[in-house]
Amino acid sequence: MALSSKFLLFCFLLFFISPSIAKTSFRPKALVLPVTKDGSTLQYLTQIKQRTPLVPVKLTLDLGGQFLWVVCEKEYVSSSYRFAPCHSAPCSLANAPYCFECFGTKPRPGCHNNTCNLLPENTINGISFNGPVSMDVASIQSTDGKNPGKVVSVPKLLFVCADSFHLTDLAKGVTGMAGLGRTKISLPSLFSSAFSFKRKFAICLSSSTKANGAVFFGDGPYVMLPGVDVSKSLTYTPLILNPVTTAALTFTDLPSSDYFIEVKSIKINGHVIPMNTSLLSIDKKGFGGTKISTVHPYTVLESSIYEVFIEAFTKGLAKVPRVKPVSPFGACFNSTHIGSTRAGAAVPQIDLVLQSSKVIWSIFGANSMVQVKDDVLCLGFVDGGVNPRTSIVIGGHQLEDNLLQFDLATSRLGFSSSLLFHRTTCSNFNFTSNA
Length: 435
Ligand SMILES: *[C@@H]1O[C@H](CO)[C@@H](O)[C@H](O)[C@H]1NC(C)=O
Ligand SMILES: *[C@@H]1O[C@H](CO)[C@@H](O)[C@H](O)[C@H]1NC(C)=O
Ligand SMILES: *[C@@H]1O[C@H](CO)[C@@H](O)[C@H](O)[C@H]1NC(C)=O
Ligand SMILES: *[C@@H]1O[C@H](CO)[C@@H](O)[C@H](O)[C@H]1NC(C)=O
Description:
This protein is mostly beta strands.
């Protein structure tokens, strides 16, 4: 009797003590990072704080990237830097089974013996070379979905050290890439497990080089001024796994970390454009299909698709004089002959028809056209050549001012289409902290 009442008391205490522990160590429901667009490279950039003492680290955002990588070669000063010894838990989480040595004379961040390595890749130019799996403290702002709040930290955020040659072609000031891809060690996965929140994240890219867009880690609300919860206006489509890696180099056989969706056809002004539909599915070698990318500034279409696409679009704009194409685009128009709408230039609507004829990602003028000169608007799609790895790569310009939410647990994508129809944009998150 005495024993069981003691046991009950113990349970009672446990019940009351544990929530108070949880309360004192603030646990965020979501995190937010600002995203800027670099005008010269058209890359989307973000920034986290890392190391001891904390320093800002500027990164190119890579939606399909496998993990966070940062150059450690020089200027990496941190008392909390750790490398992952080979066969340790971080190495198995990272799928990095092999042991490496570094032939430098003395150990430093990025150069240790007995480490496991991965292959950080600059996905803009395909440069890939191995570097050790590492950890360091990182801090990032939490959010209630309306404003940034308290800064929270992850004591041992996994990343991979890279060399400075990895930075070729990246925007000025950038020292790495923030991989949000489909792996256990991408930033969304690591943040969700660090704070036990939903395995969801969302990107909302600004179309302006002067105003911030955002990446949200965790579930909505995602509120844009003047008080529009954009997480409420999503349509869903399954995310498709490409079983063959799309990385330049790998040590092990892994599926692709890119986010693929199923586009079944493309309509322009409501008419399906004729194309070889086998290009739209992923074959045994991992070729074909449609992926979403933040490292391609414009949507890239396989050559035969591109040809019929341009032809159909131009036919739909027959009354507008065409002008000499401006590289990298293949179809440009005299914009003084084109009207405007709430969602940009009044041009033929482009529909990506997804898993059923009722699920459609519609692209309007603001996302289809690029103003290259005062009186010239070009169709913002580019030719991907014959036999490319992926037939359709939906690029940055087509994603701007659209909310995309990736649900890793249920493997589905929520997309909003243009937020301009909801009278807001991706640059309307209120970044004033309320902490
Ligand atoms: C790693 O070990 C080799 C000898 O096995 C040594 O020459 C080298 O300096 C060591 N590297 C570091 C960074 O300690
Ligand atoms: C359609 O595309 C597939 C995949 O690239 C190719 O193997 C096939 O030959 C193409 N068919 C036609 C009729 O062009
Ligand atoms: C566009 O059309 C206007 C009016 O017709 C004309 O003045 C202008 O030169 C044209 N621009 C180009 C690039 O063709
Ligand atoms: C942005 O958020 C701050 C902090 O909550 C608030 O004081 C400010 O009024 C908000 N700005 C707008 C334009 O609503």
